[in-house]
Amino acid sequence: MNIVFMGTPDFAVPCLEKLIESSHNVCAVFSQPDKPVGRKQVLTPPPVKACAVEHSIPVYQPSSLKNSDAIDIINQYNPDVIVVVAYGKILPHNILTSAKYGCINVHASLLPRYRGAAPIQWSILNGDSETGVTIMQMDDGLDTGDMLLTESTPIGINETSEELFNRLSVMGAGLLSDCLEGLENNSLSPVKQGDAGTCYAEKITKELSPIDWSRSALEIHNQVRGLQSWPCAVTKINGKTVKIHKTVLSDKTGNIAGEIVDNRNTLTVCCGDGKCVDILELQPEGKKRMDTKSFLLGNTVDISTILGN
Fold first, then answer.
1. I need a surface site. Which of 38, 62, 176, 269 has the fewest CB within 10 A?
2. Which helix (H) or strand (E) holds 135?
3. What are phi and psi of 35, to 5 degrees?
């Protein structure tokens, strides 16, 4: 099949690579415009563009899909299908209907749960025990199209959104191959989505970072792993802001939310339900990520210290 691929971040790269390795022809790639990155604001291509350029595939980066330019480009390639993976733009109707098999989307949740921009992070923030990948026939709604294939996977109790991101990106690539084969031999059975259990997975922002130690230990642990590796959960230790990169649930208990109850090699913090979390890795402002034992070699954190103040 002739394929136009639309995607932008790291998550989409395994899908693009899988298509390039296949017998299909990726004739063009659409990706978001290059953006300034880092302290020096160096203009940097998105990962999907970098992958496409490496394989000499034409890349288009329109700032908008609302004018006729994008559909004119797509039509010149006469694609059998348009594959969309975390592209980051809403596709207008004329693009959705421009290919023989329309547009299919690789989405990182078990739809209809977590429609929207950040399904991986919210599955962990909400403490879900299972997630997966859905390949969907796109329609004019936001992640509302018929489901073509799904694959589920458990979420580990200590798994971070970064780790789950990597797993689901590879899972999505494999499922995409199966879906394209099903389109070709007409073996797929589309399933309409219901609206029961739907959550909107809004974009992740830094406003979610501060830890409220009055919440339960499990909720705080989920916050830490759900916001890894950006923007990260944060708290104040002795008045200084610190990113919390890794925690585990502790078997210790305490009485005061945010209080340090153990400072031997790790920092054990009491939460609002009296249960505790162990902080295993953190990052003071202006410094590199480190394990808590290393942090304690240069910083005194006494028993009964209250975090967040």
1. 38
2. strand 130-137
3. -130, 150
> Is the pTM for the entire model greater than 0.90?
yes
| pLDDT tens per residue, range 115-138 | 999 999 999 999 999 999 999 999
Phi, psi of 229 (to 5 degrees): -105, 5
Residue located via tokens 């028993």:
303
Residue 74 has a CB neighbour count (10 Å cut-off) of 22
Three-class HEC string of the chain: CEEEEEECCHHHHHHHHHHHHCCCEEEEEECCCCEEECCCCEEECCHHHHHHHHCCCCEECCCCCCCCHHHHHHHHHCCCEEEEECCCCCCCHHHHCCCCCCEEEEECCCCCCCEECCHHHHHHHCCCCEEEEEEEECCCCCCCCCEEEEEEEECCCCCCHHHHHHHHHHHHHHHHHHHHHHHHHCCCCCECCCCCCCCEECCCCHHHCECCCCCCHHHHHHHHHHCCCCCCEEEEECCEEEEEEEEEEEEEECCCCCEEEECCCCEEEECCCCEEEEEEEEEECCCCCEEHHHHHHHCCCCCCCECCC
Identify the three-state secondary structure at position 244.
strand
Q: How many residues does the chain have?
A: 309
What is the rounded distance in angstroms from the CA atom of residue 105 to the CA atom of residue 87? Answer: 9
> Do the Cβ atoms of 1 and 82 come closer than 8 Å?
no
DSSP output for 78-90: --SEEEEES--SP
Q: For 194-232, what is each residue's pLDDT tens digit?
A: 888 788 999 999 999 999 999 999 999 999 999 999 999
- 17-56: per-residue pLDDT in tens? 999 999 999 999 999 999 998 878 989 999 999 999 999 9
Tell me the C-alpha to C-alpha distance, in Å, between residue 189 and each of 41, 136, 146, 149, 178: 47, 11, 9, 8, 13
Residue type, 63: S
